[in-house]
Amino acid sequence: MAPMADPVRVAIIGSGPAGLYAAEALVKQAGDEVQVDVFDRLPTPYGLVRYGVAPDHTSIKSIARYLQRVLEHPAVRFFGGVELGRDLTRADLLSCYDAVIYSTGAMVDRRLGVPGEDLPGSIAATDFVNWYCGHPDAADHRFDLTTEEIAVIGVGNVAVDVVRILAKTVDELRETDVPEQVLEALSHSRVRRVHMIGRRGPAQAKFTTKEARELGELPAAGIHVRPEHMDLDPASAELAETDRHVRGNIKVLNGWTGEPAGDRPRRIDVHFWRAPVEILGTDRVEGLRLERTRPDETGRVTGTGEYETLPVGLVLRSVGYKSVPLDGVPFDERTHVVPNEGGRISGPGGVPVPREYVAGWIKRGPTGVVGTNKSDAAETVRNLLEDFDPGGPRPERTVEELLKARGLPVVTYADWLNLDAAEIALARALDRGERVKLARWDAMRSAYHPFH
Ligand code: NAP
Questions:
Q1: Does residue 27 have its Cβ closer than 6 Å to ligand 1?
Q2: Distance between CA 201 and CA 204 in Å, rounded?
Q3: Distance CA 177, CA 289 (A)
Q4: Is the residue at 451 inside a domain?
């Protein structure tokens, strides 16, 4: 079939895995009949693969190489440094495109809702992760790593990442892409003990077994869980028999109930049945008060009225992410996602909003691994292409006209490749692995526009 004179034009907002898997699905499902423009507020593509996946998880990070091929497809263009809401409105997008896919992820942390949460030293895991991943918004964050004891609240994979980065020595991280200033700050860390805290039991831990196992294999850190924290209520005991994920986790955790052997500089303590009730301190964090919990009949927990305090100087809250509403786009304030059916945005009364779609975490919430976004995005794209009516009204103008008229500078894919090359060259110059991230805006700018 000859290509359509004017291919269906789709804007994707967010160049993380969900957005780029959606771009891939569009070119796969519509061939030459589509033109895909991927926008990102950052000058860099890959979203959470670049700024969320832990620097020492190099095989997951290599997904960027796969996503790069999507960006290099002739029907796909990258518009970096363009922010929805600031540079372009939803109405602008709808005037330039046949359809829009929002894949902006889940950018902010969920709140804990306990007293002391805003004390200095109480930190959202998102901030810490952004910092060690070299996110420009977090480049100048400072964390007081002079404290010897730290608590990480939550037992999901993000908590495991954060605990692992804190427990590793700087030599173990040298080959990773963490920015130089992060490596420097970590080299002064006096952290000796990291507590990871689950409000429910070991059978309800959200981390995956592979990630948990890695924590137990760190050369510089012993790991321990007190045997009484491994208590299983009848429902959990059944899960430990029948559910592969739970069985795997319990097996790994049971291996940590003895005192850690050897004389290692750091130690990780995993706690279960402990809910954070207050972050203590006057001018800064001085402790974390926990209440013992027991399971209730709904699968949640209730407090037992018994308390204990951990003498920690830093609390990292790793209790999940949430999406932020986009101006003019329906949003469910309770579930923190855009209401949708298979990626088709639902308006009032559940009526589909024409031409607007979602993919990724803003569609289904912050769950699943990077690869989960592939089938998720393919579903959205199937529905988008099914809805498209080539005989209907077509876009009035192009986004280039609009960006030019507003004098908005765009970071192009070629510009990004300059930054990419600069990071690779920096790693070589420092004799540090494959890449060293540039995190500061000025350094990024002079790398992607070297001649300006
Ligand atoms: P998550 O898996 O939902 O874990 C959040 C944790 O916070 C849970 O243990 C949860 O406990 C706890 N929590 C929530 N509210 C709490 C409260 N008020 N007090 C105490 N604890 C509370 O979220 P995540 O760790 O942010 O991960 C997000 C997604 O990214 C997940 O799908 C994860 O697997 C994925 N991810 C994957 C990798 C990897 O594959 N290596 C790495 C990082 C992230 P309850 O269960 O009791 O609510």
A1: no
A2: 5
A3: 35
A4: no
Cβ atoms of 318 and 291 within 8 Å: the answer is no
Answer yes or no: is the C-beta of 201 below 6 A from any ligand 1 atom. no
Q: What pLDDT, in 10s, does the model give residues 96-154?
A: 999 999 999 998 999 999 999 999 999 999 999 999 999 999 999 999 999 999 999 99
Test site for ligand 1: of 50, 56, 157, 376, most ligand atoms within 8 A of the Cβ:
157
Tens-digit pLDDT profile for residues 208-229: 999 999 999 999 999 999 999 9
Task: Name the residue at shortest CA distance from atom 2 of ligand 1.
Answer: 156
Ligand 1 proximity of 155 Cβ (cutoff 6 Å): yes
Q: Does residue 3 have a pLDDT over 70?
A: no
Compute the distance from residue 132 Cα to the ligand 1 centre, in Å.
19
Looking at residue 128, which CATH number applies to its domain?
3.50.50.60
One domain, residues 338 and 305:
no
Q: If you measure from the C-alpha of residue 67 to the centroid of ligand 1, how many angstroms do you get, rounded to a whole number?
A: 25
**Res. 5: pLDDT tops 80:** no
Q: Domain range holding 285?
A: 109-320
pLDDT over 50 at 1, yes or no: no
Task: Determine whether the shortest distance from the Cβ of 313 to ligand 1 is under 6 A.
Answer: no
User: Could you tell me if 130 and 99 lie in one domain?
Assistant: no
User: Are 18 and 41 contacting, i.e. CB atoms less than 8 angstroms apart?
Assistant: no
Tokens of 291: 């209440």
Would you say the CB of residue 366 lies under 6 angstroms from ligand 1? yes
**Arithmetic mean of pLDDT, 47-56:** 96
Overall number of domains in the chain? 2
Q: Domain end: 302, 320, 338, which one?
A: 320
The answer to whether the CB of 378 falls within 8 A of the CB of 386 is no
